[in-house]
Each structure stands twice: as C-alpha cells, then as structure tokens.
Amino acid sequence: MASHTFPPSVHVSRNPCLQAKLSQLRSKSTNARETKALVHEIALIVGCEALAKGLHSVSSGTDETPLGYTYTTSTIHPSHISLVPILRSGLGMVDAISLLLPFPVPVHHLGLFREPTTLQPVEYYNNLPYHSSPPADDHLAILVDPIIATGGTAVAAIQTLREWGVSRVILIAVLGSEEGVKRAAAEWEGSVEVWVGGVDDRLDGKGMICPGVGDVGDRLFLTKGK
Fold first, then answer.
1. Backbone angles phi, psi at 217, to 5 degrees
2. Residue 105 Ramachandran class (φ > 0 left, ψ -120 to 50 alpha, else beta)
3. Would you call 217 helix, strand, or coil by DSSP?
4. What pTM, to 2 d.p., does this model score?
5. Could you list the pLDDT tens digit for every one of the 226 residues in the chain?
C-alpha cells in the first residue's frame, strides 16, 4: 500500500482487522457463507470510516432518559441519503451500511455488467425514481460495490447518479485496483469520495484484479459467470 499515491478523495483502510478479513476473503477455500459474512464485515469497517468523515452530527431537539433526565438529541447531516448497490454483488454490502445509518434510507438498485470483449459497462437495470429528483444541494448517494476493477462500472454509476441530481457520492468498496480507484475518484472531482478496504496493483487481460478476490458475485451466489 505504501507504493500507491492517491488523490485526497481516495481513502484506503489501514485497519488491521479488516486486512486480516480481506486475506481470508482472498482464499479459494472460503465458501459462499463465509464470503457473505466477510463482505458484510469488511463493509461495516469501511463504512464506519467513510461515514465518520462523510456525515456530520447535528442537534435535533430534546428527549428524556428512562430516569427522567433531559438530554439533547442528535442526528446526521445530510438527512437526504440514498443507498445505491450495484447489482448483483453490491447487495452483499447493503445490510452493513443500513445498520450504520441511524434511520432507514431508500435503497435504489443499479444493474451494470461489463461487456466481455470491450470491458465497457452496460446498464440493464435502473430503479432510480426519476419522477422525484433529489434536492440539488442536499442529497448524498452512498454507492456500494465490493470491487472496483477497471473503474468503468463505478464511473457509469457515478454519471447516472449525477444526472439524477445528487449533490455528492460516497463510493464504498471492499477492494480496488490502483487504476480503477483513481479513475472512479476522478470522474466527478470534488463531489466523489472513494473508500476501499484494500488496493491491488494490477488487472489481468480480462479486467480482473490481481491477486484480487475472484468474482464476488459468483462467490456470493454460488454461480459461474459467462
């Protein structure tokens, strides 16, 4: 990790527990149930780090404790938040991020796959509520996808969210390539923060991260990609 140089908008976790869990996730002997648990746990750690910086605590009134003492309540800002998993592997991170937030938020799904020859992203599903555009100055999208490989899928998702009208994007991933992470961070400069559990140096000819963790979607759902 020391050899990587990133812009200020890219944050790579140094949490030793996360690094141990990422090492476990890399193993070909890790089964689907263990993969699901590890993705969830890593998402919790990276999510804690991302939201600690990306959100702010604000006073929201007063309440009483069970003993009758009055205290000042707090909530988070911004209050307009959407959680956006990239299908299908992003689904494995939704519960973790939802647990961290103090109130339920809308979950909007984006379906994107990479065309095998060109490695370019192709959108096949989008349930963003275009009939209800978000407030231009106060809407955060938390975009989740376990892997940032070439960065093409992340870039396409960021473009879609920007066109929908969000004001800021926090992208949370388990692992990225150096190339892909930099590409995603550069897409909407000043409005995108990228948080990853780890970074690997290179991609293979199929656009897979080396050494990486394999195809997370296939590992989560016990399927084999085309």
1. -60, -45
2. beta
3. helix
4. 0.94
5. 446 789 999 999 999 999 999 999 999 999 999 999 999 999 999 999 999 999 999 999 999 999 999 999 999 999 899 999 999 999 999 999 999 999 999 999 999 988 877 878 899 999 998 776 666 578 999 999 999 999 999 999 999 999 999 999 999 999 999 999 999 999 999 999 999 999 999 999 989 999 999 999 999 999 876 5
- Which among 143, 197, 135, 189 is positioned nearest to 167, based on CA atoms? 135
Inter-CA distances, 219 with 25, 38, 178, Å: 10, 12, 23
Residue in 125, 132, 118, 189 with CA at minimum distance from that of residue 155: 189
Print burial letters for 74-110: b (CB count within 10 Å at least 16), e (below 16): eebebebbbbbbbebbbbbbbebbeebeeeebebbbb
